[in-house]
Amino acid sequence: MNPAPESLPSVAKPTARSPIDFETDLGPLPLRGELPDGLVGALVRNGPNPVFPNPAEHWFVGDGMLHAFYLADGQVHYRNRWIRTQRYLAERAAGKPLQNSLGQGGAKDDGVANTNVVAHASRLLALEEAHLPMEIDLATLGTRGPTDLQGGLSGPFTAHPKTDPQTGQMLFFGYGTPAPLSAGMRFGVIDADGRVERLEQFEAPYASMVHDFAISARHVIFPVSPLTGSMERARTGRPPFAWEPEYGTRVGLLPRGGRIEDMVWWRGPACYVFHVMNAFEADGCVHVDVMQFAAPPLFPRIDGTPAANDKEAARLVRWTFDLAAAEGNPSPEFSQRLLDPTPGEFPRIDERYTGRPYRHGWIASHVGEGTEMHLYCALTHIDLATATRESWFFDPQDRVSEAVFVPRSADAPEGEGWLLAVAWRAAEDRSDLVVFDAQHVARGPVCVAELPHRVPGGFHGGWFPAGFPGATR
Questions:
Q1: How far is CA 97 from its chain centroid?
Q2: CB contact at 8 A, 434 and 445
Q3: Phi-psi bin for 354: left (phi > 0), alpha (psi -120 to 50), beta?
Q4: 67-89 pLDDT, tens per residue?
Q5: Would the pTM of this model clear 0.85, i.e. be above it?
């Protein structure tokens, strides 16, 4: 039985990002094809879905909404819920949008929790990068509230923590802390049981939007790119974050067992990275594979002009840090090389290989060039061992989400399993859950679960297997 949608202002001419104005439960959904045997659990997607759309507000700060697909017994059920943050509740009470500019918030602001959803120590956590994690009940998508893990956390917490598959530790960072839009950063470690065992403060070379980071077996890697932050700009009505390429890129390498004082800041040319694919160590070097932009889309220069056009594309680039060559150099330079020319974003891997040498990666990719480029209308598998790729192409007007890899079994070889994503069908203004054989993407989906409505374009998601509390209905 579906709850009645709540009445909210409608949005004309829907696009892939347009919010929806209801919460519902649906299922079983119509299927084309069959779900693979053993694919049992829940895929959860997170993204901005403002309660009251506000054209003056950056898309990145819309109210968070979770979309869950529960897979079991050959069926798919769906549920969506807004995350009940303080802002969401205040907007509902006020009956109008409440401003929440990037990098700012009120004293009681607990964020929008709209960027990612991860699991650790049997907790489901909805994340964004300026506030504490928000704990969620997977079975109902009900909001339990922000958590500081028994007092162990404070300040901003990244939307992209990394779980070390060897130790079970979750490593995390925060930027703009303790003062918003400052160069201050924090690094921390949560043990496998959910206790914070390390939390330290340090200063980056300059204030920056640091969306993601990386871990290898022996290092933590912090990429600081010149999308700079400034409270002075924010207070005077100018862009809180702006592109200043003259600062260049700085990357901090911290030994995992070392002190903050052991961090070395490496230099590189100006570029921007929202997302890291993976990092690993080999032959005395640390290698970090990133989706690299020449300049960040969606953000301005200091004068308010766009830093890049709307179709600026990222490509997979490997950064290499030669540790021996840098000994005794307080500011060494790292090298770069293009790994794959496919334009796209939202890289994912088989997360059992996080921080270790790996072979397989997947991205949501673009088709075409320049102003004729169609964004996020393909999924691409990249084989780093053979330097080859294969793609599945949706309709050029469709949009596909970040894809999530699910191993066929706990001990399956790397990359053997399935790829799950959500595709918006532009012509019908509705969405499908699509399931692929992860190493044979070009063959097309093995199963499609059809929704009658749109899942708005969002950011990130995760797979929660059978056995995780609430993963199966």
A1: 25
A2: yes
A3: beta
A4: 999 999 999 999 999 999 999 99
A5: yes
